[in-house]
């Protein structure tokens, strides 16, 4: 306790000593005012108050200054001060603004708010051009709290979340700060260099707060907030919003400010509610104070998100620039409820920077060396928004907890508790770990992966894994094994794999694997074990076709340079045909029988699609993400593929040294995939694939190109862009030239939200098309119309599609039920 008090006292002393101007801002009746903008007049040097109304304004030298206090709903206050020595204390009391309509002449034929918004929309592109390049300093603080957390979720212990929860199951689970320099140039992403990073409870951690994630510019037509959210001054904003002029007031420079209430026209549109403040005659944003529900953003756990922005005018630059932003949110999922806030302060803008070509590379986020090792003296001197008592306490308490939790006795005690075998481990599997030495062993439950197919009958798998983490940069060694036994064929099969990852920068990875397993002819596994179990036991449709593969394989993966990934493997395989060994079924109302395990002839139970053989295989593929940006964290590189260009994949596969020389082959393949955002009209995504074989006239069937079909009327893996919805699994398999095309357009409410009654359901319309072209068959195509976001409350992950298939005319139609992520 004495140590705790000493740390708190030291923090207070340091804060007071190094602060330049400090103070507290309240209303004239003594009410604390949080997030008041405090800045030097006619500059972008400023800060905001914290939740307790305290602020810190860092100045370089003494002298005469005019300090501005700006807060929505209150008159802007300017205070002239002559500072001869630091620290300097300057408190402020703000008076409520007199917002009135008395000076507005209202034309009964025209809503005055509508004309103000039209004028602002007309100015939108001009403002974006004016803000086309700049530099600034950036500060961010993120805080997430939990309130009354349950002790268990789905039977799993929640714990105290790293010391974040107190005895009432309430507390801060995330607190972090960053100090950065940002640069922006039109047509490029915002670039940020983090100079200092601090994470409560993790002395060597790096914050994930960054400027790009909170770069919400209302002058753009839309911005990403889960869904694509429509700005209230977008070119097409009148399709989404209603406007009402609620009053006017004058700022400290005698600018008339219009306070306009914005309301979404429809219940589920991705649109804000709240207020936008517009400067008369200039038609620019003075401030925003808006909210949006999680239902509108598509972020299911979020109940409500509030976004406030304050702008400041500089006569020198003749620009209204964003100087502060707060994002408040409330969330709840699985019985866990909480709230959070992300605060951002922008200062020291330079709107005439002298950028060179070296300023902007594909690296859009980087960290200065030792940025996570800044001491409390640095933070108390440079932090523009003072910590609240709650935040200061959290830092001190979690720093103390971290020292304890990193000790060997503590880690051993936690491991001893977690390593104790429990009855629930029979269902969920058991794991043993040594946190001090960073290794972990786990074994799956033998009951977890019991399934059924016509070759093995009832069969179960037992998986085991050992992982050794070598350092904090995600270098690890892993060995895993799997045993599978089928009761119908009375066969025990097993595989083992050894993996080593070198780093998390270029993700260099090598592995060696081998064993014996029953594998689908289509290695993409178009039908899952669960889908196959249901279709066989209840409908007697055994769509899964298996053969036995004995193999050894080596794999190498690495990002050779930014945007260019290499994946290669070489192996040796022995393939053997398998036959049905059971006719067991739970429901057989029609008296049908299973088809054979031969995908080439499902009515022939004695022939095989290939002869037993050995073959060596080499596979080399590259994936190219053009114009790929990336985030450089000290512990890893995180790629952000560009949506302007498609991702290109090119691959070559060679089968050689086969015991039957006819089974040798060469295959070349290329794929293009892209997702394109189309403003308020949703997003379009496509996946195109084409390939050709050489010397493959008589190759084994598993080496054909197989189209990912579907015959079960369900889709449980959410992969709609690389599969067909109504194509028999092996109907079009080919060893000749081929191509396939998949496309979907998700309207994200653009259509259904405009239809009465349907707009209450919050469903999303999806149009899809798939096509398969082979040298040996007429082109196959299918078209679908569907809806997703089906469900109740926050659990909306169901999707339904109506599909029609064509090949030389109409074939059939089907309704497909699935899951959409």
Describe this structure in words.
This protein has 821 residues and is mainly β. It has 3 domains: 20-94, Immunoglobulin-like, CATH 2.60.40.1120; 137-218 and 301-307 and 325-402, no CATH class; 414-819, membrane protein fhac: a member of the omp85/tpsb transporter family (Porin, Beta Barrel). The chain has 8 helices and 44 strands. The strands form 6 sheets. It has a 19-stranded mixed sheet that branches. A hairpin with a 4-residue loop joins strand 20 and strand 21. Helix 1 (2-18) packs across helix 4 (376-382) and helix 1 crosses helix 5. The chain is globular and about 100 Å long. The protein starts with a helix and ends with a strand. The model is unreliable at 1-19 (pLDDT under 50).
Which regions have little confidence, pLDDT < 50, spanning 5+ residues? 1-19
Indicate how many domains the architecture comprises.
Answer: 3
CATH 4th-level superfamily of the largest domain: membrane protein fhac: a member of the omp85/tpsb transporter family
Query: In this structure, how is the largest beta sheet organized?
Result: 19 strands, mixed
CATH C-level label of the largest domain: Mainly Beta
Total of DSSP H or I helical runs spanning 4+ residues:
8
Task: Output the keywords.
single chain; 821 residues; mainly beta; Immunoglobulin-like; Porin; 3 domains; 19-stranded mixed β-sheet; 13-stranded mixed β-sheet; 46% strand; disordered N terminus
């Amino acid at each position: 306790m004495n140590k705790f008090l000493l740390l708190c006292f030291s923090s207070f002393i340091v804060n007071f000593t190094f602060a330049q101007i400090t103070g507290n801002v309240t209303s004239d009746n003594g009410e604390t005012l949080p997030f008041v903008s405090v800045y030097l007049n006619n500059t972008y040097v400023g800060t905001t108050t914290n939740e307790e109304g305290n602020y810190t304004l860092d100045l370089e030298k003494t002298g005469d200054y005019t300090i501005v206090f700006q807060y929505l709903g209150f008159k802007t206050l300017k205070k002239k001060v002559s500072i001869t020595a630091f620290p300097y204390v300057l408190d402020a009391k703000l008076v409520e603004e007199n917002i009135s309509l008395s000076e507005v002449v209202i034309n009964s034929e025209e809503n005055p708010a509508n004309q103000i918004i039209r004028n602002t929309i007309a100015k939108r592109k001009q403002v974006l051009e004016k803000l086309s390049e700049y530099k600034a300093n950036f500060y961010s603080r993120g805080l997430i709290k939990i309130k009354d957390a349950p002790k268990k979720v789905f039977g799993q212990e929640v714990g105290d979340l790293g010391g974040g929860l107190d005895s009432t199951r309430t507390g801060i689970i995330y607190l972090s700060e960053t100090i950065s320099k940002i640069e922006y140039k039109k047509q490029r992403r915002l670039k940020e260099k983090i100079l200092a990073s601090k994470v409560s409870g993790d002395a060597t951690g790096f914050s994930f707060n960054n400027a790009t994630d909170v770069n919400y510019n209302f002058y753009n037509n839309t911005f990403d907030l889960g869904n694509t959210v429509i700005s209230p001054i977008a070119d097409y904003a009148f399709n989404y919003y209603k406007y009402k002029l609620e009053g006017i007031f004058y700022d400290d420079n005698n600018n008339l400010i219009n306070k306009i209430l914005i309301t979404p026209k429809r219940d589920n549109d991705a649109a804000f509610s709240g207020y936008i403040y517009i400067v008369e005659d200039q038609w620019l944003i003075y401030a925003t104070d808006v909210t949006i529900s999680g239902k509108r953003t598509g972020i299911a756990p979020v109940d409500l998100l509030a976004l406030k922005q304050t702008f400041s005018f500089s006569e020198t630059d003749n620009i209204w620039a964003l100087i502060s932003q707060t994002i408040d949110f409330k969330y709840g999922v699985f019985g866990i409820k909480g709230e959070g806030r992300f605060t951002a302060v922008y200062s020291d803008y330079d709107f005439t920077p002298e950028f060179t070509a070296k300023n902007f590379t594909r690296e859009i986020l980087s960290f200065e060396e030792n940025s996570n090792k800044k001491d409390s003296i640095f933070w108390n001197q440079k932090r523009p928004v003072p910590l609240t008592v709650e935040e200061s306490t959290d830092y001190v308490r979690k720093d103390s907890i971290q020292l304890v939790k990193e000790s060997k006795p503590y880690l051993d005690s936690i491991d001893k508790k977690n390593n104790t075998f429990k009855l629930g481990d029979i269902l969920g599997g058991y794991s043993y770990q040594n946190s001090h030495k960073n290794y972990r062993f786990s074994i799956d439950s033998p009951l977890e992966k019991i399934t059924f197919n016509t070759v093995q009958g009832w069969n179960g798998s037992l998986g085991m894994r050992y992982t050794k983490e070598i350092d904090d940069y995600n270098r690890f060694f892993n060995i895993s094994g799997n045993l599978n036994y089928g009761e119908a064929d009375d066969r025990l099969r097993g595989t083992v794999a050894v993996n080593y990852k070198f780093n998390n920068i270029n993700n260099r990875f090598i592995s060696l694997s081998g064993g014996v397993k029953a594998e689908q002819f289509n290695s993409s596994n178009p039908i899952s074990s669960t889908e196959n179990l249901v279709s066989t036991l209840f409908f007697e449709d055994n769509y899964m076709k298996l053969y036995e593969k004995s193999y050894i394989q080596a794999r190498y993966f690495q990002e050779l340079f930014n945007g260019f990934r290499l994946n290669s493997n070489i192996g040796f395989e022995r393939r053997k045909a398998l036959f049905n060994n059971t006719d067991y079924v739970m429901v057989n109302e029609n008296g049908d029988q299973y088809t054979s395990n031969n995908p080439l002839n499902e009515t022939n139970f004695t022939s095989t699609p290939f002869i037993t053989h050995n073959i060596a295989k080499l596979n080399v593929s590259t994936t190219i993400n053009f114009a790929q940006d990336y985030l450089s964290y000290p512990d890893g590189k995180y790629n952000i593929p560009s949506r302007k260009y498609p991702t290109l994949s090119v691959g070559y596969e060679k089968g050689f040294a086969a015991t039957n020389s006819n089974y040798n082959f060469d295959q070349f393949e290329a794929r293009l995939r892209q997702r394109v955002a189309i403003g308020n009209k949703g997003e379009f995504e496509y996946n195109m694939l084409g390939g050709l074989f050489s010397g493959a006239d008589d190759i084994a069937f598993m080496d054909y190109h197989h189209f990912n079909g579907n015959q079960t009327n369900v889709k449980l893996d959410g992969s709609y862009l690389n599969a067909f919805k109504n194509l028999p699994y092996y109907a079009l398999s080919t060893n000749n030239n081929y191509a396939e095309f998949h496309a979907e357009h998700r309207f994200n409410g653009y259509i259904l939200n405009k239809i009465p009654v349907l707009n209450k359901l919050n469903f999303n319309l999806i149009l899809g098309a798939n096509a398969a072209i082979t040298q040996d068959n007429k082109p196959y195509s299918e078209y679908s119309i569907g809806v997703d976001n089906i469900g109740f409350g926050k659990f909306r992950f169901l999707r339904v599609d109506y599909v029609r298939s064509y090949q030389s005319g109409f074939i059939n139609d089907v309704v497909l039920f699935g899951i959409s992520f």
